[in-house]
Amino acid sequence: MGKLIKLNKAVLNIQKILHPIGNLTLPDLRYVVTGSGMSYQDLTVYQTELNPIPVDAIPFEAILFFSPSAIDSFSVANRFSSERIYICIGNTTFTRLQYYTDTYNAVIAKNPTPEAMLMALYKKMKYDKK
């Protein structure tokens, strides 16, 4: 990503990037942008607020987590089960899942997209049936 930012800086003459963020955003983009020599400023535009809802009584086989905060909120009102499949959008979300449960039934999507998460779920279910 750093090479891409350097290329765009040269081609588009970008000097500074503004990044609207939430209060729990990791500094990854800041490191890449400033490492490429551009100026970076973040602006906190929202606060993450957990909204734990019990779902253990609802039968389901898989859950897709799009953020570490979703895992934190889920854990407040629910239990993790080795009988469920957990799909994480990326490494940071997967790392948070490891804090709460054994990740034998967890998979990280190849790309941070809903489509990649569904493909990861499909492959995991197909593999587990063998």
Describe the structure.
- The protein is of the alpha/beta class.
- The protein has two domains: 2-46, no CATH class; 62-128, Rossmann fold.
- 42% of the residues lie in helices and 20% in strands.
- It has helices at residues 2-12, 28-35, 68-77, 91-100, 114-128, and strands at residues 16-22, 39-46, 62-65, 85-88, 106-108.
- The strands form two sheets. A three-stranded parallel sheet has the order 3-4-5. Strands 1-2 form a two-stranded parallel sheet.
- α3 links the parallel β3 and β4 (85-88).
- α3 (68-77) packs parallel to α4.
- The longest helix is centred in the last third of the chain and has 15 residues, at 114-128.
Q: Quickly give the CATH architecture of the largest domain.
A: 3-Layer(aba) Sandwich
Pick out the low-confidence regions: none
Helix coverage percent of residues?
A: 40-55%
CATH names the topology of the largest domain as Rossmann fold
* Strand order, sheet with most strands: 3-4-5
What percentage of the residues does DSSP assign to strands (E)? 15-25%
- Choose one word for the global shape: elongated
Along the chain, the helix and strand elements come as HEHEEHEHEH
Mean pLDDT: 89
